[in-house]
Amino acid sequence: MKPPPFGYRAPRTLDEALDALAAVPSGKVLAGGQSLIPLLNMRLAAPSHLVDINRVAGLDTVHAGDEGVRVGALARHARVERSPEAAAIQPLLGRALRHVAHPVIRNRGTVVGSLAHADPAGEMPAVLAVLGGTVEAASARGRRTIPAAEFFRGPLESALEPGELAVSAFFPAAPPRTGTAFAETARRHGDYALAGVAAVVTLDEDLRVSAARAGYLGICGVPLVLDLAGAAGPAGDWAAAAAHARDSMDPEPDIHAGAEYRRHLAGVLTERTLSIAAAEALRRAGV
Ligand SMILES: Cc1cc2nc3c(=O)[nH]c(=O)nc-3n(C[C@H](O)[C@H](O)[C@H](O)COP(=O)(O)OP(=O)(O)OC[C@H]3O[C@@H](n4cnc5c(N)ncnc54)[C@H](O)[C@@H]3O)c2cc1C
């Protein structure tokens, strides 16, 4: 199918992009186009205008600093996945990005576009949510920082308002003695996952579990984040943590998998990722 007719703007600066978005409130940002173009072609979206940000200078940045990794709106999945600087500061990013679609899609699609698209089966929303990251939004009215916990509102629905452009996303650094892991189950590699888990475990100076969090994709309409430190206890009983996770979720069935199968997958992946993350935390603690 062909897309419905739309107007097209191709700004070259951020100010021009924000002016274009203010002028066409029912317009949509076009970034990598890996989700938007299929939606247009299937006529599941019919925006009046596309504001193509691909020529806007200064948005294709990846900054890794002590505090975390800031990813600009035009940084492609592949660039972030292959950044050694980003991997050193927050390894969970690259680990999860390897599961996003296929290499050709990752060469074009953007990390920030994935967040703005807010697909509950997407890897990046779950990673941002479990890390407690933020999205920086800009419009002709000004800027604001949106915490991940407020950003995802429902399936394909984010807190971005008409006229707003997500200019960057911030993924906080891994604290000392912290390990991370990512795993998902998909029917074929590169497909959207039936269920997936991003896990983060932090140990205290006595090597007891001080934090254990899991972020889930494919379970409900927004990324689900569970604090599992209490269920795991200081010694890290990951089977108990997984049982608690299974009891704490209410997965949504669809044509690909039923609720009980998704709950089962989430439990298996929770135990697996938490134990891998804990082993990495021990290594980082020098044990
Ligand atoms: C075959 C196939 C398999 C895929 N598998 C996966 C997968 O397993 N996991 C996964 O997570 N994704 C998957 N995707 C989607 C892919 O990762 C997309 O790249 C990503 O979801 C969106 O990024 P994009 O830059 O292409 O955004 P676009 O398609 O350009 O935009 C997507 C949406 O976000 C909005 N948007 C984009 N950027 C901004 C911005 N800076 N500010 C405000 N709004 C913005 C657009 O207006 C649009 O509504 C798949 C895609 C295909 C075609």
Number of separate structural domains: 3
| Number of DSSP E strands | 14
| Number of alpha- plus pi-helical segments | 12
The CATH first-level class of the largest domain comes to Alpha Beta
Bound molecules: flavin-adenine dinucleotide
The portion of residues forming beta strands comes to 25-35%
Q: What is the terminal-to-terminal distance?
A: 57 Å
Mean pLDDT: 96
Biggest sheet details: 5 strands, antiparallel
Proper CATH architecture of the largest domain = 2-Layer Sandwich
Structural class based on helices, strands and sheet pairing: alpha+beta
Which runs of at least 5 residues are low in confidence (pLDDT < 50)?
Answer: none
Classify the helix fraction into a percent range: 25-40%
Could you describe the 3D structure shown?
The chain folds into 3 domains: 7-52, 2-Layer Sandwich (Uridine Diphospho-n-acetylenolpyruvylglucosamine Reductase, domain 2); 66-172, Uridine Diphospho-n-acetylenolpyruvylglucosamine Reductase, domain 3, CATH 3.30.465; 178-284, CO dehydrogenase flavoprotein, C-terminal domain (Enolase-like, domain 1, 2-Layer Sandwich). β13 (209-217) and β14 form a beta hairpin. The chain has helices at residues 14-23, 36-41, 77-81, 84-89, 91-97, 103-108, 111-117, 123-131, 148-151, 229-232, 238-248, 259-284; strands spanning 7-9, 28-30, 49-52, 62-65, 68-72, 134-139, 142-147, 152-154, 157-158, 165-172, 178-185, 195-203, 209-217, 224-227. The radius of gyration is 19 Å and the shape is globular. It has 287 residues and is of the alpha+beta class. It has a 5-stranded antiparallel sheet with strand order 4-5-10-6-7. 35% of the residues lie in helices and 26% in strands. α7 (111-117) crosses α8. It binds flavin-adenine dinucleotide (FAD). The site of flavin-adenine dinucleotide has 29 residues, from β2, α2, α7, α8 and β10. Its EC number is 1.2.7.4. This is Carbon-monoxide dehydrogenase medium subunit. Keywords: FAD, Flavoprotein, Oxidoreductase. It is an enzyme of class 1 (oxidoreductase).
